[in-house]
Amino acid sequence: MASTSALGLKDPSLVRTQAYIGGKWVDAKEGGTIKVTNPATEEELGTIPEMGLAETKEAIEAAATAFKTWSKTTAKHRHDILKKFFGLMQEHQDDLARLITLENGKPLAEAKGEHAYSASFIEWFAEEAVRTYGETIPSPFPNIRNVVIKQPIGVVSILTPWNFPSAMITRKLGAALAAGCTAVIKPPAETPFSALALVELATRAGVPPGVINVVTTQANISEVGREMCENVAVKKVSFTGSTPVAKMLYGLAAGTLKKVSIEAGGNAPFIVFDDADIDAAVAGAIICKFRGTGQTCVCANRIYVQSSVYADFASRLAEKVAAFKVGNGLDKDTTHGPLIHDRAVEKVERHVEDALAKGAQLVHGGKRLPGAGSFFAPTVLADVPADALVNAEETFGPLAALTRFETEEEVLRLANATSVGLAGYFFSRDVGRVWRVAEALEVGMVGTNTGVISQAVIPFGGIKESGLGREGGHGIEEYMNTKYIAFGL
Hints:
Layout: E1 19-21, E2 24-26, E3 33-37, E4 44-49, H1 53-70, H2 75-91, H3 93-104, H4 108-129, E5 135-137, E6 144-152, E7 155-159, H5 167-179, E8 182-186, H6 193-205, E9 212-214, H7 221-230, E10 234-240, H8 243-254, E11 259-263, E12 268-272, H9 278-290, E13 300-306, H10 307-322, H11 342-357, E14 361-364, E15 379-382, H12 389-392, E16 399-405, H13 408-415, E17 420-421, E18 423-427, H14 431-440, E19 445-448, E20 459-460, E21 463-464, E22 467-468, E23 471-472, E24 480-488
Parallel strand pairs: 7-8, 7-10, 8-9, 10-11, 12-13, 12-18, 13-16, 15-16, 18-19
Antiparallel strand pairs: 1-2, 3-4, 5-6, 6-24, 11-22, 14-15, 17-21, 20-23
Helix pairs in contact: 1-7, 2-4, 2-5, 2-6, 3-4, 3-6, 4-5, 7-8, 9-10
């Protein structure tokens, strides 16, 4: 195992190689470990415990015990602890960003951006903690007074993906802590160190033992996930990941009718109309498609361009993509890092080969890059047919697939012809079209003349098979019960 000092952190104690249960850093009962590697170099960063059912039950029990006191704390008390947590995240921002780059691969500048996004959730929910207002409702009866209050729901199971190792933790955990809930977190085995570092800082900020628990696993993920969804002490499940896994977890949680929030797969359309500012549309496509090397749930996956501006847009996009510098995220000149593992590379390869076999034209890239690490060249394909795999599946990689269209009606039919509906984007300077298309797109979030939509303050989530509930701006409601009290006079 690499030593913590070898990771180059100013505060090496932020690198935690144990899980966290009931206020203690612990190893797996059976002694198993999981290797964590840098996807850019394939070097081992360290190990984490391979935990199972016994540790998961222990973590849930610890959270249930802690809930009895944490749920009774004042909103101001939770606000103050979360503000300290936010301050510690800011103090250690360089180390936290470096951890993201080491385990996820994204360039350091982008990792710093994720850190800022991650910290913004803790700041936002610190303020939301003191704004969990109830209400009074006028009664039709003179001797009754109606009062509605909000109460924390209980123990929360949090399951997160590897593409945003820090932000996907804080978006859920911040809301849970602010509401007065306790949590059991299962971070991804690929990127656990960011989650564990956050728990270390939360502990330093004053979060009591048992309020946050972390169970790490890889081989035992099925039994751990099942317990996190079925255990009767758990009252809420929050998951971000693929739609097939979301459906499985939703089914497990249904047995006890738990509250569930799910942010599942996307297949975002990105539409460029003939009246668009093409430079702005290209810039929007670059950030929207290639952020995280294409590994975000709100990435543009299907790019539709109106025929009269198709050639212009394609050439400008390809020119920008050709200037990318692919490499180790710690290198200052790197603009785009590796994919998370070889399976991700293989999926991009499969999508490219399928599109080319069906008549698409290769404009740039299109191949795995040689050497160590899971690298695939940023790719632009033109004239991608409607029946290509990339239009049916989320690529989750650096592949921009361009398809031409003729009319607004045609592109809306194409954009909405999918079972998921997380995000959608379009560029147009026609104010009437802006309203029509924004309302017609079957997604939970729309970017109009922008490729950036993610913020702590907005309700983040999708429709159709992209999930249930909202995180971020309205997210604290997902962690609270609404109770009505009738007062007789």
